[in-house]
Amino acid sequence: xxxxxxxxxxxxxxxxxxxxxxxxxxxxxxxxADSDKLIQFLExxxxxxxxxxxxxxxxDHFGHVKPLKEKFPDVPVYMNEKDNFLLKEELWPGFAQxxxxxxxxxxxSYLKEGDKFSLGNLKMEVYETPGHTPGSVVFYxxxxxxxxxxxxxxxxxxxxxxxxxxxxxxxxxSLKKVFSIFPETTTVITGHYDLTNxxxxxxxxxxxxxxx
Length: 212
Description:
Elements: E1 3-10, E2 15-22, E3 25-29, H1 35-44, E4 48-53, H2 59-62, H3 65-71, E5 77-80, H4 95-99, E6 109-111, E7 116-119, E8 122-128, E9 137-141, E10 146-150, E11 153-154, E12 157-158, H5 168-181, E13 187-190, E14 196-197, H6 198-204
Parallel strand pairs: 3-4, 4-5, 5-6, 10-13
Antiparallel strand pairs: 1-2, 2-3, 7-8, 8-9, 9-10, 11-12, 13-14
């Protein structure tokens, strides 16, 4: 294994937890559940975990940060500071128990627009894309033309904006931003369910017709 990514749907909501890897190093994104599966993939492929990243602060995306931190205490966890208020938020009564999720995960460092990270031979860029939550971000890997988009965009759909801190106006601006910056051939790892690409969504996503 040199460079690439593995998408592992986790938990009852099939969150697309992603492992990005290069030269024996790995980042994990949105470990919402099933941390044992993520750890198993790392161990089977002799990958050294270097960072845990959250696209946003919803419990279904951060639910298993704590078990990962127990296993890898020195690995930093990254999120945008604007979503701090969500880390103790179940969203619905009993939701944490239903998901088997751990509230209030430790965050070691805050992400902001323009942050850059290196992983082996890969570079990664951070873009702020509020709307689904105030602190939603996406991660772009230029060499792979890969966008880890969280709940900003789905195959045939867009993110919700009716949850705490959500904004329809912000979501529209963030979607315009993403489609104006990245090439249409960009592969999109959505927050849940099928992967897609920007070109397909531009042509086929009905929600984008009034936005783009």
